[in-house]
Every structure is written in C-alpha cells, then in structure tokens.
Amino acid sequence: MRDLISDNEIENYVKAGQIACKVLKEVESLVKPGVKLLELAELIESKIHALGGKPAFPVNISINNIAAHYTPLPNDESTIPSNAVVKIDIGVHIDGYIADTATTIALNEGYRLLCEAVKYALEKALGVVGPGVKFSEVGYVVEQIVRSYGFKPIYNLSGHSLDRYLIHAGEVIPNHKDRLALGSFKSGKAYAIEPFATNGRGYVREENIATIYALKQNPKKLSKMDQEVREVFKYIYEDRKTLPFALRWYIRRFSEERLRSAIKTLIENGLAMAYPVLVEIDNGVVAQYEHTIVLTSKGEKIVTTLCH
Ligand code: MN
Ligand code: MN
C-alpha cells in the first residue's frame, strides 16, 4: 500500500518529535518551587530553537487546577508554588510538521497516583492506536484506567489529529467512553493522544483571561484595518502564519500596550482569536500526559518518545 505521507514528511515529524522529547526531558528536573515561569518558558523555547525547531505554540506551563493554555505573560512574576502539580506542554514544528507532547511533574507526593493514572492511561491508549481503530476505543481505555485509580478523566478535553501548520486538524480523540466518536485512525496521519485526569468533577471551563492567541487569515477584512494594526498583523503573520503565539514574543518589536490594543482590534474584527486559560470547574488538580503518533504503512512511530 502506498502511503499518503511521504518519507520527507515522516522525517520532519520525527525531527520535531525528537526535539520536543529532548527538551521536555531536559527541563523536567528544573521544575522546582520558586522558579519563575517566565524564565522556564524562555529557556524551553530557546532550547527548541537551538536544536533547529520552532515552537508550534507557546510552551504551556499549567499549574494545579489550571488544565491548559497558560503561558507566561510579558514581565510575568509568577513562580512555581511549593507542592504544585505542574503540566508542561511543548509543541515543536519542522516546516509545519508538528510534534505535541506533555508531562506532569508532581512536587507533592499526594498527587503521584493521579500522575501514574494518566501516564498509564496514555501508555495503554497508545497501545490500541492503529489504522482502522475507532477513536472511541482510546476514550474507552483512558476512562477505564483513570476511573480504576479513583479519578475522573476531563470530559471536555481531548486529543486531536495534526496536519501541516494545524495543531487541531479536525479529528477529536476523546478521553472518555464517547459513543458519538465515530471516526477512526488512518494510515498516513499524525495524532496527538493526551489524556487528562483530575480529582475534581472532570470538566474545564474557560477563565476570563487569555495568554495565547492566533491570527486568522482574511485579506479583505485586514485591508480595512488601520496601518498600526495591519503592521502588527503582518509582522506576526510572517513569523507564525496561523500558529498560536504569545505576547512576550513580540514586545521587543512593539510595546506591550500597542500589541494588546492591536490584538484586541484584530479579535473584534475576526482576524485573531484568543485561547482562554482552562481551569477545572471544581478547582480539582489536573494531570496530563501527551505523545504524538504518526501512522504509516510501514508501522507507527510515537515520535515524541524517540530521544532516548
Ligand atoms: Mn499539547
Ligand atoms: Mn495536543
């Protein structure tokens, strides 16, 4: 059978995966109480660049009841609290081919079991992934394992298919028994499998704050914007296309005030979107593990584990 994915594309996924894997391993031991989130984020992203990759999204450092989508703000003074449960979610891309991976570091012994549950759920979930397997199979395995440990999966967070320059490429891989997940895994495609679990109710809600944004392409609307706003759009688009970005990446080029005001206008006009910070609705503590798997006719590669 001929693949719908070329050797060159597979190679890019593998390279991106190796970088993400290496960086995550290197920074795990640096997660300690008192460390500034901003310094940790900048270190992670500089390591990605140094290894020849680019961030597919700003590194997410999400603590305790924050499940996802927190990246440090410009001049962020926050530090890792003692006893924290810290999720680090890294995305690397090579020429648009994305590897997405995450781990959880529990600085509190009391949450070791929560982490173990999710790690084991991911391992078993990856074991069932293959061409023709239904997405719902993964959800079944994840929920079964997470519940056997006495926790709940996060029902409204899921894994996803990946495509060139697209982190969420349309397919949703549930983390629970979802009879409506009718799709199935296909050869020649890449997927991120990412179980989350919590000691809370098992749902996240959007906080009224965003730290991550992405542009949306619409030349007609853009031409109607003020010069000031167009300039910000063009500068970021050149760098990111429609991939997510953080404010801190551009405050050397534009002031934070100008950046925020331009992005606000872009959002109001459908030319950008914000990713709100996601928190567990009961303020339950959340753990997450994630790997990216590429399915080919020659077999499958879990590309974010290839750095041993
Ligand atoms: Mn991720
Ligand atoms: Mn993901």
Describe the structure.
32% of the residues lie in helices and 27% in strands. The protein has 308 residues and is an alpha+beta fold. The protein folds into two domains: 7-206 and 282-305, Creatinase/methionine aminopeptidase superfamily (Creatine Amidinohydrolase), CATH 3.90.230.10; 208-276, Winged helix-like DNA-binding domain superfamily/Winged helix DNA-binding domain (Arc Repressor Mutant, subunit A). A hairpin with a 2-residue loop joins strand 3 (85-94) and strand 4. It is globular. It binds manganese (II) ion (MN) (2 copies). Residues 100, 160, 192, 194, 290 line the site of one manganese (II) ion.
Question: What is the residue-mean pLDDT, rounded to a whole number?
Answer: 97
- CATH class descriptor name of the largest domain: Alpha Beta
Count every beta strand, where a strand is a DSSP E run of 2 or more residues.
15
Q: Give the name of the CATH architecture of the largest domain.
A: Alpha-Beta Complex
Biggest sheet details? 5 strands, antiparallel
Please report the number of helical segments: 7
The CATH homologous superfamily name of the largest domain equals Creatinase/methionine aminopeptidase superfamily
Which regions contain 5 or more consecutive residues with pLDDT less than 50?
Answer: none
Write down the overall geometry.
globular
Order of helices and strands: HHEEEEHHEEEEEEHHEHEEEE
What name is given to the CATH topology of the largest domain?
Creatine Amidinohydrolase
